[in-house]
Amino acid sequence: MTDILRSTFRLGAFALAAATLLSGCASTPLPPMQATSPAGTGAARQVARAPGTQLLLDAAAAPAEAAPVAQPPVLATTTQAVAGSQDETMVTAPIDPLNPDQPVNLDDKTANRDLWVRVRRGFTMSDLDDDYVRRFEQYYATRPDYVKRMTERGGRYLFHVVQEIEKRNMPTELALLPFIESAFNPQAMSTAKASGMWQFIPSTGKDYSLTQNVFRDDRRNVLASTRAALDYLDRLHDMFGDWHLALAAYNWGQGNVQRAITRNQKAGLPTDYASLKMPDETRQYVPKLQAVKNIVMQPDQYKLELPALKNHPYFLSVPIERDIDVDLAAKLAGVSLDEFKSLNPQMNKPVILAAGTEQVLLPYENAASFVEKLRNHRGQLATWTAWVAPKTLRPAEAAKEVGMSEAQLRDVNRIPPKMLVKAGSTLLVPRSATRTADVSEHVADHASIALAPDVPPLKKVTLKAGKKGETVASIAKRYRTTPAQVASWNKVAPNGTFKAGSAIVVFVPNATKVAAARPAPAAAKPAANGKGKATAVAIAKPTVKAAPARTSGAAKTPAPRNRAAIRLADH
Fold first, then answer.
1. Pair 356, 346: CB distance under 8 Å
2. What percent helix, strand, coil does the chain show, rounded to 5?
3. 251 burial class (0-12, 13-18, 19+ CB within 10 angstroms)?
4. Cβ pair 281, 296 in contact under 8 A
5. pLDDT of residue 79 exceeding 70
6. Is 173 a catalytic site residue?
7. Among 193, 357, 370, 411, which is least packed, fewest CB within 10 Å?
8. How many whole angstroms separate alpha carbon 456 and alpha carbon 342?
9. Are 395 and 406 in contact (CB under 8 A)?
10. 505-525 pLDDT per residue, tens
């Protein structure tokens, strides 16, 4: 790999030298370039350039002192506008998102050291030693294939996590936490809707600025979720002053941990992790992390083998300037679709929106190739775009508006049968001659889809129970609904009975002809209306209550997350 990187770096340096010579400013970095917006997108905009793309590197100059970690090369120093059939494609260089402005020393021997050595060196948490730890050591030791699969997958992300932890002077035991949370699977989803390798529930993800909408879920974003998780853990440590308690709060919730501490304080009991009363999942949480730590420290003792991990980034980031299909991005990068998604798992749709995704992550060896192929690409980059419904529509009507089949519209936007698309919903639709502009930042960041049942308009009808009364079940059967629904309308029990003469409320379609709850006896004097005709029911002024919209894209706070039931794609 070192030879490949050295060659790539030299090519990048040669390109830089040529660009510098042509500019006539051999010692001055090129200024940021301005680009007018593509046709139809409005005012001119500043091209978003990655940090470090102007950095001048000297391949022959050795650094003053050896860097602790070899950084990947900055392979280009200019943003280039390339003419194509889809306006202009802005191409920038791949960078290391951890150290975008660091010079590169390709001969740094630390890049070839084992990353596990670096992880072990940063262990600073106090150790636990109890039966729970022994149990989980045994669990992992008897599952070598699972440990291998989990650690190989984690190797994509571990360098980045360790680097971020060291920048914050946090213990590197925290770098092992995704093994406990998700087996380092960024696609993991728990039964409590916790998502990503750090397992954020929707509400906590929002608290830490992890966008969740139609197009992306940043709880699965490798960079964003790591930043958010370490912010959260740092805050919990400041709150409790102890890493074990901070980890308990990460799993159980800070309020629960604080209440457990308060109970022990009032009872005159210790308030350390082992002394608190907590759910089994939280009781086992830190011992499980301790077991993984022990295995990383001495894998031979457990007859396990950890895969060798190099002490350099597995991935680089490449800025995205135009909307581009996920399939095309993977093809240009020369990686499989699965590999591309493993590094960019936040994508919910088959298109990457430049306004909402500043960068994509690519394997170390593929980033430069992607930049070159993107620069030379001719043709459309994105075949999909966003369309905001101007009014409430049936899927068939929306499909006709955007020129696609109803089946395709339902499938790509996950619209179930018998649902309406409410006004303001954002749908993924094909690009066309009238929809060529990239999606705006507002839509990319706030897109949501709201659905409502496709049922006729309802009206409220008040019935009068007969002399012998009526059961909730009989009313439900008569109006083809459920006892629970009738009970909800009338605030009674589903197995209840209406008293004789009492009012009964039902909601029915406007076209439905409503009969009395029970026919009036023949001897009874009918009520007369203004025209002398009998009226069997009293109909209140229609007060239609629309069914609540079902929204995807707007986060809903679930019950406290339960990581014991994480569904893994590869567990």
1. no
2. 40, 15, 50
3. buried
4. no
5. no
6. no
7. 411
8. 44
9. yes
10. 998 887 655 555 544 444 444
Q: Which residues contact 190 (CB under 8 A, 6 or more apart)?
A: 199, 561, 562, 563, 565, 566, 567
**Which tokens in the block code for residue 324?**
């581009």
| Residue 155 Ramachandran class (φ > 0 left, ψ -120 to 50 alpha, else beta) | alpha
CB atoms closer than 10 angstroms to residue 195: 28
- Please say whether the beta carbons of 259 and 133 come within 8 A: no
Q: How far apart are CA 144 and CA 208, in angstroms?
A: 35
Q: Which two three-digit tokens encode residue 566? A: 């994480």
Half-sphere exposure of 328 (CA within 13 A, CB side): 19
pLDDT band at 71 (very low <50, low <70, confident <90, very high): very low
The per-residue pLDDT for 524 is 40
* Orientation of helix 395-402 relative to helix 406-413, angle to 10°: 100
Residue 297 has pLDDT above 60, yes or no: yes
Q: What is the mean pLDDT of residues 151-160?
A: 95
> At residue 361, what are phi and psi to the nearest 5 degrees?
-100, 135
Point out the catalytic residue in the list 164, 181, 321, 470.
181
The whole-number average pLDDT for the span 182-201 is: 95
Q: How far apart are CA 333 and CA 11, in angstroms?
A: 18
C-alpha radius of gyration, the chain, whole number? 31
Q: What is the 3-state secondary structure (H, E, C) of 311-379?
A: CCCCEEEEECCCCEEHHHHHHHHCCCHHHHHHHCCCECCCEECCCCCCEEEEECCCHHHHHHHHHHCCC
DSSP state of 40: T
Separation of alpha carbons 394 and 166, rounded Å: 53
**Distance between alpha carbon 374 and the CA centroid of its chain, in Å?**
26
For 550, the token pair is 């079902």
Q: How far apart are CA 392 and CA 455, in angstroms?
A: 13
